[in-house]
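Q: I have 398 residues here and want to know how they pack in 3D. Can you give me a structure?
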Amino acid sequence: MAALLLEAGILFTVVAVAGALASRLGQSVIPFYIVSGIVAGPYVAGEYGLPAVEANDFVEVGAELGIVFLLFFLGLEFSLSRLVENRRRIGVAGTVDLLNLVVGFLLGYIVLGDAVAAVLVGGTVYISSSAIITKSLIDLGWIANDESDPMLGILVYEDLFIAVYLAVVSALVTGTGELTDAVSDVAVAVGFITALVAVVYIGGDLFDRLLDVRSNEAKTLRAVGVTVLVAGSALALGVSEAVAAFFVGMAFSGTGHVEVLERLLSPVRDVFAAVFFFWIGVTTDPSLIVPVAGLLVAAVAVTAPVKFATGYVGGRVYDLGVRRSTRVGLGMVTRGEFSLVVAAVAAGATGAFDTPLVTDTVPAFAVAYVLVMSVLGTSLMRYSSFFESAAKRFAEKQ
């Protein structure tokens, strides 16, 4: 316990210093949190005999809570009716976004020459980071802007699709290999999400009464309790905790307590979000980047422009102008937590799939790819004005 408490103290001290440095330089805190995790983690500080933070239970649970609260806040900004109204646009934009999965598969197969590894590479490069994008939307003040609608729609589509993808791939690569297992997992995921949608649709008064207390302490504990319980239940059933937290946030968005919740829970969100980004750094071994440098460079060079293009098209599907569509494209470049889940699936491959390409190369690539794309994506969003102006000038010449 003493060691865990010391590591927790190091964690919060390091991210506080990193956040102060980012603020002093006028930069996004996200890359600084990630890099601070690398420096304070076992692969840098630990290698030099300095006190280091491991990816222990506290850090991992804190990272999960960071994802949960970031997506909860995103849900607070939207309603189920708003999503239903945009269902056609979500379907079109999300389907266009699937091009990234195809491109990732082709890239993986060309470079690695293995179909299973290529499927895992495709999943790694396909899905954007809901948590990192949400944090950036909040920090940049884009959360209430028009560009947040297509970004949200694509993220929801991706999260639902990746739940099916992970169920199928996990059953075939790390499980018994029986397709019936995958079908069962998908059925559970669909059932749980359907139940959440029903609760959001009919349970507005219930959530309103739940928070109808004078004590801020009681209000906070009730909101946190419901959110974490539902997210944890989802994860235990193989469903994305991010999707679950998003729907819980939408349920609370229909109450009269949104402003109070945002004020009370914003510090909680920011603390655990910092732990999440720090965790990405802690799990990154810089030495693993060298063996996969060729695949990494190729992936960044190919997938960043493709993700931008599909995101831009998504913005146009929502009838946004060139500038805001450019913001959508830039924002979707960021990859994060789900790519690391794919890495974990690859690392746990068994039987005929337990090959060095699958269990070693793909996880190393995924970690390096997330590191590069999370920094690149947040930086592109931060300096989007340059790209917006360039896109506007290009459009005017056509």
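Q: Anything worth noting?
A: The mean pLDDT is 86. The two ends are 64 Å apart (CA to CA).
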